[in-house]
């Protein structure tokens, strides 16, 4: 595991905003719910930081952490409408009609009507390292990557959205928050964000 820090170690005591590439099968918390669960405690993060939002145990990618309560409240408040971009590997190859349903919004996800999403079918398809353990594969059904940007954060929202249009998500990776990208952080790597990177997260303010 590699850590990349900006500024002296004393800077970790205040005004900390950290980007972590959360691996698959890791809880977005520091204490396991049951023994043997993997948590954020294994990555050597600074003390007194906590996640801003969460990624589910079976999801991967960009997770922010901070010791600034005001920053946590700001990024999580519904008014912030902070865009988050995901790559979703879905079952089947979505047709335009399915993608348009995601784009229009209004999908009813357990009583919540989803806002419109920015949805794309990348061409060429991204080539990513395989997940460990690998995704479920059905020989008779192909899989396909789509990109979704949403401004909400309902529980398992992307997975429920793709399932609602007939394409269950097999693998989900958050690749961007605001304008700040996951790349080049590898799974398990983290860094303390400098001023320009913080501005990418916060929308330039």
Written overview of the protein:
Helices cover 16% and strands 27% of the residues. The chain has four helices and twelve strands. The protein has helices spanning 69-76, 96-104, 157-164, 195-202, and strands at residues 3-4, 17-22, 50-52, 60-66, 84-91, 108-109, 112-113, 118-120, 143-150, 169-177, 180-181, 190-192. The strands form two sheets. Strands 1, 2, 3, 4, 5, 8, 9, 10, 11 and 12 form a ten-stranded mixed sheet that branches. Strand 3 (50-52) and strand 4 (60-66) form a beta hairpin. The longest helix is centred in the middle third of the chain and has 9 residues, at 96-104.
Provide the residue-averaged pLDDT: 89
The largest sheet, given as strand count, sense and whether it forms a barrel, is: 10 strands, mixed
Strand content: 25-35%
CATH architecture of the largest domain: 2-Layer Sandwich
Show unreliable segments. Answer: 1-13
CATH superfamily of the largest domain: Pseudouridine synthase I, catalytic domain, N-terminal subdomain
Number of helices: 4
- The CATH class of the largest domain turns out to be Alpha Beta
Shape, per Cα inertia axes = globular
The total of beta strands comes to: 12
* Fraction of residues in H or I helices: 10-25%
Structural class of the secondary elements? alpha+beta
In whole angstroms, the N-to-C terminal distance is 32 Å
**Cα-based radius of gyration, to the nearest Å:** 17 Å
Q: How many independent structural domains?
A: 2
